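Hi again,

Forgot to attach this to my earlier email, sorry! This is the prediction with adenosine-5'-diphosphate bound. I've pasted everything inline since the attachment limit keeps bouncing my files.
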Amino acid sequence: MFNPVRWILTSIRRKAITGLLIILLSAVFLIGLSIVSQARKFILAEVQRRASSVARFVGTDLASALSYTDPKSAVSDIVYRISQDPSVIYASVFDVNGRVISQASSRSEDEVIRSLPLGELYDLQPDEVRYHVSDTVLEVYRSTVMAQGRQKYIILLGFDITDVSSIVAKITRLIAFNAFIVYIFGLLALIAAVNRLTEPLTDLTSGIKDLGLGKLPKPVPVRGSDEVGTLSLSFNKMIEDLRQYRQEVERYQKHLEDMVGERTVALNAANVELTRINESLKAANEKLLELDKLKSNFLGIATHELKTPLSVVGGYLDSLQDGFAGELNDAQKGIVSETLSSCHRMEALISDMLDLNRIEAGRMPMELMEMPVIHVVQKVAGQMIPLLQKKKLTLDIREENMELPARFDEDRITQVLVNLVSNAIKFTPQGGRISVSAKRGAGKGHSFFQISVADTGIGISEEDLPRIFEEFAQVGEPGKEEGTGLGLAICLRIVKAHEGRIWAESVLGQGTTFHFTLPLA
Ligand code: ADP
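Structure tokens for the complex follow:
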């Protein structure tokens, strides 16, 4: 519903017009009122002046009439005479006790007596005049004293002042009309002034509203150099700054878009190049895999074909050594023994290569069983006794935790342990110590079994350590010990096939520890 008070309060223009309208209306009304009351006062004063002079004359006449022998008829004459004046409505003469001496009036004597302000008249000084004014009558009281000064009489004259009221009404109408004209002009002037004053504010408000909506407003007209003018100037300056800032941002955004476009083009080109390289890499990889397969096949065939004649050669050499073809002299024995040991090395190499080849080709299936590791460790320790004795080394088996059942292929894990322990024997100088231990571990969500083989041998340098699990990797001083460089590569593949991990820690000159993990049963 329309609320006029709210409607006025929501606009500074409407508030100013309403406020000033009320002030203008009050001012016009008060000025009109004061003019009317002043005019009435002025006219009344004039009438009073006239009435007073009439009363003075009557008073003088009355004073002389009272000294006559028949004062009552003389007084009546005077009263009658004065009542003939058209402006006099009534005339009375009475004493201070309110006793009417003579009167000329349409009112009864009682009525006159009741209306007299006797208390007030009692104090009336000789020749003093008092007035009582009502809307239609002006009453004039005047006292007069007999010649001897003994008796005081009062004359009351009632003058008709209805004319005064009608003149005042006329003046009032005239003033009201003029006030209305003044009011209309004042109103127009006021609206124009308020409009002039509030227009810049309205412009500024709509500009700020536009800003709030994210639009860039037009500059507002600057009217005058007062506070509002200064505000308009500052607003325009702000808009100009904002416009420039927006242009700058747009320019920068465009620049950024261009840059992004350029980069995208470059990235696309790089991507195309990468895809091309990737494809050629893929092709090369496929080629390599093919070659690797060929190599494996070749190695498989070659090693297999080598194995049979080599075992025949080995057999003959064994027979020669055993004196099957007659007693050999020392030189012949030396040659046969050297050839036999080379033959054994070749057999070991071929066997390692065959193993590696089989694992890579997936032809070595793991037969997983659950059993305690101690079983394998003790078996390997038994096999190693001759070698250990030969080099005067101690093998320490820490059986703690080894009773725990793990899941593994017995032959393959035996192969891993044989490799690690024989390496430890190989690379530990005489009198050294080798230890095998086990512990339980936990990784990301699963438990495992960790077996460690530690020695007090020559150790592996930090830079060689990452290479030792590569095929044919033989690190350290060349030719220090015999070997194929395939043992650890085979270990790595076997442990991985058990979903375990193998790694080494070593300090050059102090010793090496190999660790590998197996899944717990
Ligand atoms: P190899 O038949 O030569 O022993 P491996 O693969 O078993 O081949 O070992 C690779 C190389 O790692 C070895 O030649 C040796 O240099 C180094 N190595 C392995 N085990 C040890 C160890 N316990 N102490 C020092 N060096 C070791």
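DSSP finds eleven helices and twelve strands in the chain. The longest strand covers residues 433-442.

That should be everything now.

G.
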